């Protein structure tokens, strides 16, 4: 018994967790991570990003990513590749070059095809996926200004997707973003992008719904929103779920967090083409939240001692 076993019984592909290479020396942590009844899928938190995989132009390093891919294979878990094109965690040679369109197109194509090609067939199943483009939108639904958009406009997205499809025709290709959990301008922009890509014949298989949420503030329109996205002919997945609170934690906050986890999981379970759910690490011990959102934390379903929190029971109730 475990979260992945329950999710699969209910018709989903997986329940998974993010992880990161430095965490893998903690044997109490890996004992839970490696159990494929609990987690049927893992995502590398950092080690497949551009700065980690192509630190110098044309020089690729896969040691960190391979450790996670090998772990997934050993454990009988699916792999979500994360990610190939993102404004953040770029090596300085990408951000500091004054690109023209031809040069940056070639750099994107080389990066995406080499990284996605390297991991082709390394997963146990063809149903693994890649976050090919990560976080392309501002919260108001306009495209984010970054080296890619500023040089190529929105064409960088199709350049990356086409290169990924050619490198691994079996991988599900996703665009992943946050603040698209409920209906609103940003989700509408994502839907418009999917429609536009499909009308041009650009490969797009899924939309990743990150779901970095706040206790007491889970959007009420989540199920409706997921239905609207899947109605466009793509799958969705909850890709980076955590639900943070302002510290210190209290029994009341932990109880609201349990309800909130159940709400999110229930929304995915109710939507046929929501294929799986991933927490952005399962334990508060390794959550990215405290170092990113000052004064906030306790966002995960296991606490810092690797004990299950009420949120765990909320997930079970939602599955
Ligand atoms: C985070 C990692 O968890 C941190 O370790 C790192 O310092 C910054 O990135 N959205 C994403 C993820 O798509 O890649 C981010 O991961 C969290 C927000």
UniProtKB/TrEMBL annotation:
Annotated catalytic residues: 240
Domain GH10: 1-318
Highest taxon listed in the record's lineage: Eukaryota
Keyword Chloroplast: no
Subcellular location(s) per record: Secreted
A GO BP annotation: xylan catabolic process
Swiss-Prot/TrEMBL catalytic activity: Endohydrolysis of (1->4)-beta-D-xylosidic linkages in xylans
GO molecular function (one): endo-1,4-beta-xylanase activity
Pathways per UniProt: Glycan degradation; xylan degradation
Protein known as: Beta-xylanase
